[in-house]
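Posted in: Structural Biology > Protein-Ligand Complexes

Title: Requesting predicted complex, iron/sulfur cluster in pocket

I'd be grateful if someone could produce the 3D structure tokens for the following input. Sequence and ligand are given below.
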Amino acid sequence: MKREFTCIVCPNGCEIEADYEIKNGTPVISNIQGNTCKRGEEYVRQELISPKRTIASSILVEGGELPLVSVRITKPIPREKIPEAVQEIRQYRVTAPVRAGAVICHDFLGFDTDLITTKNVPAAHK
Ligand code: SF4
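-- Reply #1 --
Done. Output follows.
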């Protein structure tokens, strides 16, 4: 089988083409081209076995200069869990001041990834 991928590991976004077979339920890559580094091949292998994605979103801030703070997870999670994860992230609220890098949830959804803030939000002046 042949399949095309756009590597999302770094901003280069290499277009990769891979030939592979499924042997005993495991993809075996026979030919790969377009990746400019080894991480591209690892990305394709991961995509064939179990695609993963990271999430960036935002959550509500109470008492802040801004109403929202941006958040992200620190490690990718299985792609099919993204809708559930987005729903879960919407439940969170934080109180200002908020520091960039603050951990909102350890072991988010049990995937050994943390949900962290990516921006400072000072408290609103009263
Ligand atoms: S193959 Fe390497 S250089 Fe190309 S996008 Fe992936 S990580 Fe970046």
